[in-house]
Every structure is written in C-alpha cells, then in structure tokens.
Amino acid sequence: MSDSDGIEFPIWCTPEGEPVSCVEKIKVLNENLAELKELAQEALEDAVLMGCDERQVREVLAAIVAGIVNPYRT
After folding, report:
1. Cα–Cα distance, 43 to 52 (Å, whole number)
2. 59 three-state secondary structure
3. What are phi and psi of 57, to 5 degrees?
4. What pLDDT, in 10s, does the model give residues 35-59?
C-alpha cells in the first residue's frame, strides 16, 4: 500500500507475525510514518542548504532511529 507522496507503507504485523487488521491502527501507523519521512526530508534539505555533508546527515538520522527505545519491552 502506498500514498500519493510515494511512500511504500508496509503491511503492519503483530509480534506473532499476523497482519494488524484494525483500520484505525493502520491509519495511525501510516500517518506517523509519513510525518517521520516529511520531517527527515526537511531536516536533510535544511542541512544540505546550510552546507552540511549529506552522508553525515543521513548517518545521524539513521543513528537516531537505531537508538529509539521501546519502553514496552518486557
């Protein structure tokens, strides 16, 4: 599934591997993903316009995602 901005949304799955079936949950997840992409795009564009190295900005963004903590992990 994708939207008009060219984002390819995944089939969201539960920890057991089953697809999430609630339409409202899927809508929220897809909206969150679209917002993240938009904000990351804006951050990259700003950084490049200010003379930063694109590769470094991408590495920093990737590190932020890699460092996100799941507060619900048991």
Report:
1. 11
2. helix
3. -60, -45
4. 999 999 999 999 999 999 999 999 9
Q: Are 36 and 9 in contact (CB under 8 A)?
A: no
CA distance 61 to 43: 9
Overall pTM surpassing 0.70 (yes/no)? yes
- Rounded alpha-carbon distances, angstroms, from residue 7 to 10, 42, 53, 61, 70: 9, 15, 25, 18, 24
Sort 61 into a burial class: Cβ within 10 Å, 0-12 / 13-18 / 19+: middle
Please give the Cα distance from 44 to 7 (Å, whole number): 17
Distances (CA, A) of 13 to 35, 49, 57, 73: 20, 38, 30, 16
